[in-house]
């Protein structure tokens, strides 16, 4: 929703005197913008549209540029104000950051509790929190204002990454509350991370560009926050949860428990994980750990265990330390989710931009809740580095519990019959020459008429995140290609039901539905269209940014690389790729054909229209498997009617849609007394017209 913008430079003519009332207006604007950011990023309850927020932010930027004396470090305009750096400065932590001892079983947890009771002489309560697999960070606030932040480093000294941390939208630059009640100094510890969906999207984009992919969300978060240029970090939807008050000065009210510490941080506007649990004894701790061992995949972020802390902070000093770890806390680690299988073959897949991706064909094996039969090997270099051969026994896991990957080769099981992988010299689909740039890890097919690339472009154009043409998957694309009916995306808009009916597994009903879906896709708008065109380096986020900036594709085609680079989130590589695409005559002709077919090429004010929609202002959570609707489809239907679909249940949730095997979200909804509906009631609330328009309706 909310995007970053750079503040205009100060006027060269010098600062102007600040008129009466301007300073108060500026501070009121900041308070309003901070509240909108808190509503959106922390509460998942947006109160204004993008356009309304942007207008307020623009007004604030203009006032700060006109009166530089009013500019402050905690202003919402300073989210990405830092310059790129040549290196990170070391920052010594005021409070050493300790690691935790590990517990791997129920017996280990009981031993942990026994040692505490022996030391204190009485039983204690606990707080159990998900152990997010991200990058540990430390934040420093002075008089309620964020001053600096750092990585953990070796626990004593970390790297100062203040400007990168400022790009995390859910992290407040100023604490909430009356200045007089806030601590003079606050040092807090937390974990920065990349949600699973964002991690998968980032890796897909990097893979398509021929760039090295991240092994897991933790590496992605670390790589993002350790970028020397804050603008790179700003392009990635990082999040952070804080869980420890390390030190505090100037707070008169004592904080006696971990529960109270988390609630206090939450009251100050700091993001805190809501999945924490208070446990009266070790039996409840064990139950919580068992629950999350089974339900860890329900969370939108990756966790590798649970952190158990004694709730009473006053007991910490008495419990003390071992030679390495504090005695008041431990980390329960989940059992590893890996499996051993065999590489049957290594095949090459041709992407829509010509990238050749080696893929391991595996003997099917169950891992992390699903059956895995293939895993991407990314590029030739990775195969060489891990020495993966056809016939090898390999250990596989899901990176971020999402993407199957080969962890290592079981070389001890080799028989000598394994075959080393040899990269082909020609495209496996068209025989075109393969080439590899010095700056890239990937090989590419150089043939302009490669059918594999064309088919991939058709499938991408029709995909859900692009033009969302239901029923036009890879199998139908293959049928259309073989029948000579569609070789470019513009051909799709000239298809007729009569042409489709003879195709394999099509028939009259399916043909009519597909034609209707193609017709409906014309109204998707500029952002989906830009992403659907498959312009290299232009992903979903960049497409949305461009659609907000330019009213039409014609305005975008007329923009220079310099104009594009001036837009936040659009770098030189993206700008060069976009201008090159728009300057290509074949691409311009394709756009003209799409325009002639009636494809909408403007960016409508979606958020303004949403205010008048039937479900505007309502926040909905979906959990479990619905009978007929896929979760993503249900989400889109809800968003079309103005609802906000959140990933977690809170007091702000309006209602919950529950299907089969609903998990902790359903329990949380019942606990909070939030209404729960099934798919039938969901469809009723959406209305027949909305459902028919989205699903295609009866043929």
From TrEMBL:
**Annotated Gene Ontology MF terms?**
DNA binding; DNA ligase (NAD+) activity; metal ion binding
Q: Which residues bind NAD(+)?
A: 50-54, 99-100, 129, 152, 191, 309, 333
Annotated Zn(2+) binding lies at 427, 430, 450
A single Pfam family, by name?
OB_DNA_ligase
Query: Its GO CC terms?
Result: cytosol
Cite the NCBIfam families for this sequence: dnlj, PRK07956.1
Required co-factor?
A: Mg(2+); Mn(2+)
Q: Source species, please?
A: Heliophilum fasciatum
| Keyword Cell wall biogenesis/degradation assigned | no
Which reaction equations make up its catalytic activity?
NAD(+) + (deoxyribonucleotide)n-3'-hydroxyl + 5'-phospho-(deoxyribonucleotide)m = (deoxyribonucleotide)n+m + AMP + beta-nicotinamide D-nucleotide
Q: Where is the BRCT domain?
A: 610-683
Q: Which domain of life is it from?
A: Bacteria
Protein name per Swiss-Prot or TrEMBL:
DNA ligase
UniProt function note: DNA ligase that catalyzes the formation of phosphodiester linkages between 5'-phosphoryl and 3'-hydroxyl groups in double-stranded DNA using NAD as a coenzyme and as the energy source for the reaction. It is essential for DNA replication and repair of damaged DNA.
Active-site residue numbers: 131 (n6-amp-lysine intermediate)
């Amino acid at each position: 929703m909310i995007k970053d913008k750079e503040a205009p430079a100060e006027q060269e003519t010098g600062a102007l005197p600040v008129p009466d009332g301007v300073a108060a207006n500026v501070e009121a604007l900041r308070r309003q913008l901070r509240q909108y950011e808190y509503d959106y990023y922390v509460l998942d309850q947006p109160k204004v549209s993008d356009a309304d927020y942007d207008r307020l932010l623009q007004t604030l930027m203009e006032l700060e540029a006109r009166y530089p004396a009013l500019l402050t470090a905690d202003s919402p305009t300073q989210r990405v104000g830092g310059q790129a750096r040549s290196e990170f400065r070391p920052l010594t932590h005021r409070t050493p950051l300790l690691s935790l001892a590990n517990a791997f079983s129920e017996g280990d947890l009981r031993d942990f509790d026994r040692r505490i009771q022996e030391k204190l002489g009485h039983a204690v309560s606990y707080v159990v929190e998900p152990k997010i697999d991200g990058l540990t960070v430390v934040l420093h606030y002075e008089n309620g204002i964020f001053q600096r932040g750092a990585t953990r480093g070796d626990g004593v000294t970390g790297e100062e990454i203040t400007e990168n941390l400022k790009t995390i939208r859910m992290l407040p630059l100023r604490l909430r509350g009356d200045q007089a009640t806030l601590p003079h100094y606050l040092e807090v510890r937390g974990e920065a991370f990349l949600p699973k969906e964002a991690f998968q999207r980032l890796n897909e984009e990097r893979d398509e560009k021929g760039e090295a992919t991240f092994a897991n969300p933790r590496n992605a978060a670390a790589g993002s926050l350790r970028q020397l240029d804050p603008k790179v970090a700003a392009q990635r939807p990082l999040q952070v949860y804080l869980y420890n008050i390390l030190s505090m000065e100037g707070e008169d009210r004592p904080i006696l428990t971990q529960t109270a510490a988390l609630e206090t941080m939450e009251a100050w506007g700091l993001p805190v994980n809501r999945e924490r649990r208070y446990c009266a004894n070790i039996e409840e701790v064990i139950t919580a750990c068992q629950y999350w061992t089974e339900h860890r995949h329900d969370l939108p972020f990756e966790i590798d265990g649970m952190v158990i802390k004694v709730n009473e902070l006053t007991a910490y000093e008495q419990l003390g330390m071992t030679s390495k770890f504090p005695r008041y806390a431990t980390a329960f680690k989940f059992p590893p989710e890996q499996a051993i299988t065999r590489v049957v073959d290594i095949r090459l897949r041709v992407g829509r931009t010509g990238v050749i991706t080696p893929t391991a064909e595996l003997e099917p094996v169950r891992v992390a809740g699903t059956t895995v039969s293939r895993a991407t090997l990314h590029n030739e270099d990775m195969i060489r580095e891990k020495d993966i051969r056809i016939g090898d026994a390999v250990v596989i896991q899901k990176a971020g519990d999402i993407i199957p990957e080969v962890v290592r080769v079981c070389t001890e099981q080799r028989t000598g019959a394994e075959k080393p992988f040899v990269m082909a010299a020609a495209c496996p689909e068209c025989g075109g020459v393969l080439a590899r740039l010095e700056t890239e890890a990937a090989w590419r097919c150089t043939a302009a008429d490669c059918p594999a690339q064309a088919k991939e472009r058709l499938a991408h154009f029709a995909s859900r995140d692009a033009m969302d043409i239901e029923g036009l998957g890879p199998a139908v694309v293959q049928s259309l290609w073989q029948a000579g009916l569609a070789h470019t995306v513009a051909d799709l808009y000239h298809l007729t039901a009569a042409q489709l009916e003879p195709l394999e597994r099509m028939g009259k009903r399916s043909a009519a539905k597909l034609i209707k879906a193609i017709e409906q896709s014309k109204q998707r708008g500029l952002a989906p269209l830009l992403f659907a065109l498959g312009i290299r380096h232009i992903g979903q986020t960049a497409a949305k940014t461009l659609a907000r900036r330019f009213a039409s594709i014609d305005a975008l085609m007329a923009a220079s690389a310099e104009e594009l680079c001036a837009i936040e989130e659009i770098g030189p590589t993206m700008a060069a790729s976009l201008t090159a695409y728009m300057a290509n005559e074949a691409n311009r002709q394709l756009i003209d054909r799409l325009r002639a077919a009636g494809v909408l090429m403007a960016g409508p004010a979606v958020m303004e229209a949403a205010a008048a929609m039937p479900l505007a202002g309502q926040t909905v959570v979906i959990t479990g498997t619905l009978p007929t609707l896929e979760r993503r489809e249900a989400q889109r239907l809800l968003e079309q009617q103005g609802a906000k679909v959140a990933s977690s249940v809170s007091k702000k949730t309006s209602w919950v849609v529950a299907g089969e095997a609903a998990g902790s979200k359903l329990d949380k909804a019942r606990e909070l007394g939030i209404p729960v509906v099934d798919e039938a009631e969901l469809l009723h609330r959406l209305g027949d017209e909305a459902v028919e328009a989205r699903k295609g309706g009866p043929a």
